[in-house]
Amino acid sequence: LKVRVVRSSPPSSQFKATFQESYQVYKRYQMVIHKDPPDKPTINQVRLVPVSFEDPQFKSSFSQSAALFAKYQMAIHKDAPSECGENEFTRFLCDSPLEAENLPSGPDCGYGSFHQQYWLDGKIIAVGVIDILPCCVSSVYLYYDPDYSFLSLGVYSALR
């Protein structure tokens, strides 16, 4: 048995060289020990999108996100359809007092409010609304497609 300590942040060359192999061990562990399904979302299926109507990814996914929000609110929280429209979605999860800021010393995505979108088979199945700040990441809200509740997306998002 050989054990190595490999720097993950910032990623060392050893980390990069063994990433796929390590990921496959992790995925098998999750499936065998925690009974995760093989189609649980992967890192390649998660997009971090700035909450801005100027951002093309945000604009192009807005309707799908708003519809998913309504489906979640009605199924999980028993909200009436009138409480889950695009205006309510925008007020609750898109309007933010934070201003986007990109500093050379900050993360590549910058600081501000983001929608962390979880995609599966070409559609959004969950959205984590987060604020990225200089000293922390704040989870504001998470909503998901109730049809995928078996994936435990809230737990997955929190761990991620």
What does this structure look like?
There is one protein chain. This protein has 160 residues and is of the alpha+beta class. It has two domains: 1-43, no CATH class; 44-159. Helix content is 36%, strand content 21%. The protein has helices at residues 13-33, 56-76, 86-94, 153-159, and strands spanning 46-50, 112-120, 123-133, 136-144. The protein has a four-stranded antiparallel beta sheet with strand order 1-2-3-4, sandwiched between helices. β3 (123-133) and β4 form a beta hairpin. The relative contact order is 0.14.
Q: Quick one: how many beta strands? A: 4
Largest sheet: 4 strands, antiparallel
Structural domain tally: 2
**% residues in beta strands:** 15-25%
The total of helices stands at 4
Shape: globular
H/E series, N to C? HEHHEEEH
Quick overview of this protein structure:
The chain is an alpha+beta fold and 160 residues long. It contains four helices and four strands.
Sum up the structure in keywords.
N-end_Aminoacyl_Trfase; N-end_Aminoacyl_Trfase_C; 160 residues; alpha+beta; 4 helices; globular; transferase; arginyl-tRNA--protein transferase activity; ATE1 transferase; 4-stranded antiparallel beta sheet
